[in-house]
Design a protein that fits this description.
The protein has 515 residues and is α+β, with helices and mostly antiparallel strands. The chain has 13 helices and 22 strands.
Length: 515
């Protein structure tokens, strides 16, 4: 069994005769001894001609095609419970793994189910009213459900990515995610997939409890846990859940959990994160740049990514959304936070990406008095400053070249951000250590990496601040349990161990496997 590569023009697929000829040559066999073939990877190559590059597995007659098989989900009605706090990717895939291994997942989610939470997000966009428990970050599916649905990760050492992708296909994702080099699902399709995962879990005996904000975790004398839930907006009643094991998968914005750990004296650590702006360009411009002027309407909306170093700190693109829109992602009143999302077609006329600067604890010595919550308080203060400038969830915004030249913009281009933008001196509102690095980053990208990217047709909007958690909950590298609390498994983005849908799902699988 061997792998071959075949390149074809956009809009075409490798033909049977073409694959057979290349396969026979690679295997060193006669045409009659050729057994079969399967596409295992597809990637877009726009370096010169615009091509699809296919990696194809070929084999001789008598050999068996390599197939991936998922473990079966077991019925767990009477099985031992494991409490999972949070129904994002880490929590959902931990629950699915527990089903496979014969444990009963009990999921506590502070937000609403994936359909009900849409009403709260609409209210946020239209009225500017934040529900602190149901928003773009909190609720069934977590922050990833209403983003681009990107499934690309470099975290192959964390586990078998195929387990995540095959389960997503099982629950409704297109099979193309199994072969695409940069797979994505889209925010229009993810809610149904998330709902199907829930149905699978509950049909096999697992439990979901929505509107259930965890307010306390207690380790009991017998080594088990008591997890206390408080009522949320009158939709739920206070309750207590008990189990020997708890997976903590609360996401990167659950600040109340970090404060609970701090209050209890449980070990947490300040962790570097990244902060900056959302850069929004016309998608047509990004298409022109990335396809070298050869873009055709049948081609996918072009993406981009970059990373560079400026004055000892990383500056990089984050969560790029081709053909996407900008959305408000605050989790508390009085904050201004932006994120990007796109539907499966990626067909809006804008492209947006977070352009962010790494921030470490030593960069903000004035917050040192907050101890492990230093960067969390820094993050929150920046978000408040943005909100206070506009007095609403309208985004402070500035044209890209004006930002770098440190001058006001005379009018703003149209934006996809529904609440609207306010002309603002972003170069002054951002922390200086972030603002100055971005000032040098944008011309560098435009001159060296993507000619045409540095333009006043691009709009910068503040603030992109939820790139990852500013706190890490330390765990034992072997058992994955909290370093002080046996049986408690910090997991996913909220604990500081992943970033994105797939890496979070893999971390959830790993924690469940340890249990």
């Amino acid at each position: 069994m061997k792998e071959i590569e075949i390149a074809v023009k956009m809009g075409r697929e490798p033909g049977e005769a073409q694959v057979r000829e290349a396969g026979v040559k690679a295997l060193g066999c006669s045409p009659k001894a050729f057994g079969g073939w399967k596409i295992i990877r597809r990637s877009l190559d726009a370096r010169t001609d615009i091509l699809w590059r296919y990696r194809i597995q070929v084999w001789k007659s008598g050999e068996q095609e390599e197939k991936y098989e998922l473990e079966e989900y077991k019925d767990v009605d009477a099985a031992e419970p494991v409490i999972i706090i949070g129904a994002g990717p880490a929590g959902m895939f931990a629950a699915l793994k527990l089903l496979m291994r014969g444990f009963r997942p009990v999921i506590l989610e502070r937000g609403k189910d994936v359909h009900e939470r849409k009403y709260d997000m609409a209210k946020l966009s239209v009225e500017g009213k934040v529900n602190p428990d149901s928003n773009y970050c909190f609720g069934e599916g977590g922050a990833g459900t209403f983003s681009d649905g990107k499934l690309f990760t470099r975290s192959s050492k964390r586990g078998d990515i195929r387990e995540v992708l095959h389960q997503l296909v099982l629950f409704g994702a297109d099979e193309s995610i199994l072969i695409d080099a940069h797979p994505h699902i889209g925010s229009d399709k993810l809610p149904v997939i998330v709902e199907n995962i829930r149905k699978c879990i509950t049909e096999h005996g697992g439990e979901y409890h929505f509107d259930s904000r965890v307010c306390d975790i207690e380790k009991l004398p017998d080594g088990s846990f008591s997890v206390q839930v408080e009522a949320v907006d009158g939709f739920s009643a206070p309750a207590v859940y008990n189990a020997r094991k708890v997976i903590l998968a609360t996401g990167h914005s659950a600040r109340d959990i970090y404060r609970m750990f701090s209050r209890k004296g449980w070990d947490i650590q300040a962790k570097g994160f990244a902060l900056g702006v959302r850069a929004e360009h016309p998608q047509s411009l990004i298409n022109k740049i990335q396809y070298h002027g050869k873009y055709q309407p049948f081609m996918p909306a072009a993406e981009y990514s970059f990373v560079t170093q400026i004055e000892g700190r990383g500056v990089f693109s984050f969560c790029m959304c081709p053909g996407g829109i900008l959305v408000p992602s605050a989790t508390e009143a009085g904050e201004q936070v932006l994120n990007g999302m796109s539907n499966s077609a990626r067909n809006s006329k804008w492209a947006n990406a977070g352009i962010v600067v790494s921030v470490e604890p030593e960069d903000v010595p004035e917050y040192a008095g907050y101890g492990p919550l230093a960067l969390l308080e820094f993050q929150k203060d920046v978000e408040r400053k943005m909100y206070e400038y506009t007095g609403s969830i309208k985004a402070p915004a500035q044209r890209m070249m004006d930002f770098c030249r440190r001058i006001p913009s005379s009018g703003l281009p149209q934006t996809s951000y529904h609440p609207g933008a306010v002309n603002a001196p972003l170069h002054e509102l951002l922390p200086e250590n972030v603002s100055l690095r971005l000032k040098y980053a944008f011309p560098y990208v435009g001159n060296k990496l993507m000619h045409g990217y540095y333009t006043n047709d691009a709009l910068l909007l503040g603030v992109e601040s939820r790139t990852s958690s500013p706190v890490r909950i330390p765990r034992d590298p072997e058992t994955l349990e909290h370093v002080q609390i046996a049986g408690l498994y910090p997991c996913g983005e909220g604990a500081g161990y992943s970033g994105g849908i797939v890496s979070s799902a893999l971390d959830g699988i790993n924690c469940a496997s340890k249990i």
